[in-house]
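Suppose you are handed a protein chain with no further information: no name, no annotation, nothing but its sequence. What can you learn? This example shows the usual starting point.
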Amino acid sequence: MENLISVDKLHEECGVFGIYAPEGENVAEDIYCGLTALQHRGQESAGMSVSDTGSPEINLITKKGMGLVSEVFDKKILESLKGNAGLGHVRYSTTGESVVENAQPIAMNYIKGTLSLVHNGNIVNASEIKKEQMYRGQAHYTSTDSEVLAYEIISNRVKTNSIEEAVIKTAGRLKGGYAVIVMSPRKLVGFRDPFGIKPLILGKRDNTYILASESAAIISIGGEIIRDVLPGEVISITPEGKKSDRSLCREGEAHCIFEYIYFARSDSVIDGIEVHDARSKAGQCLAKRDNIDADLVTGVPDSGLAAAEGYAKESGIPFAFIFHKNSYIGRSFIKPTDKERQTAVHMKLSVLNTRVKDKRIILIDDSIVRGNTMRQIIELLRQAGAKEVHVRISSPPFLHPCFYGTDVPNSRELIAAEHSDEDVRKSIGADSLSYLKISDFKAMVGDLPLCKACFDGVYPDN
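A reasonable first move is to predict its three-dimensional structure. Written in structure tokens, the prediction is:
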């Protein structure tokens, strides 16, 4: 269901958004705008739940479906979603099939009321928790991580005095990387894994509180950033205001470096780091150790542009846009065939031939996963008359799988894990190839503690 050119990219699992307006205004359009700002994090399904906290007969209204935010929600649907509190989700599946049954929010009724939940990431010990729930007759074999999480919160809610207590008790036994927003009819609760692997940001607009995967989503509805939710923190928003519980916070944070390399929007700020600035610094690091004589530097749209800008600034080689990107390519609702993979780049990108002909080009991209897309881009440049194409990657080689919500199930799908740099260079048809060094991360994000397991194999739970 994604754009075909993206089949050779790693993907985040999803984006989450929550909002609570105590003065009673409807929030469905705000959720729509927030999810649209997070659309890059998931393009398979979208959904939202809303609640009118002032109504004597409170219930949660949920709407979700397959496709982009603009395809799932139209004006009529948004007008029917009446409520001053709500949450929303955009999904790219890394666990569970890409079907509407697995779309979020997960909304459930239980003995004490109703609950809706949106989740980004991966619960590493979900199968263990699921077995216990199946024994209790709660979960079923096909339950997703998000459903397991919802069942566990409900199980704890019937034994506690509040949804906050249930969330804290549930979060205390979870392993993995996650950002979650839970809504009961009168409360919104957000929490983040103790490592801080997945981002979650708190914002405000007048008296309205907002939680989102990225700051760009908060800014998109006219809000301002308060701060990042702390790793392990549980934040609850009620008619009385905002409360924080930090009982699960601990030392040993490990923020996902790939948020800064690729996942997040360039205009977002996550854990105090401006994403565009981090990517530009990665390009500068590549240039500092390079000695290629070239005519121009360019980036693969859109993910390689900031790093290319940094490379050009450091090297003194002119930066140039040489691609036209078609932003209106339709999505495929079937798994791409080999032929579709081969034609995807031609559908998505075209080359400005006059800028390329007889030029020696330094081409920057954020990563190489399988190598298919880069190979085809280089072919496009050769066909347009490029004399040389030197590839620079603003991340180290991918060598290890991710278990925290990124769609890399095993190392066999990673070209760098199975082949030498020289073999990769030959495979993609580049004149030269080099990668960012792990040691360059400090230049990108300073002393921010990182999860970089996909590059070095050191996982946060080790």
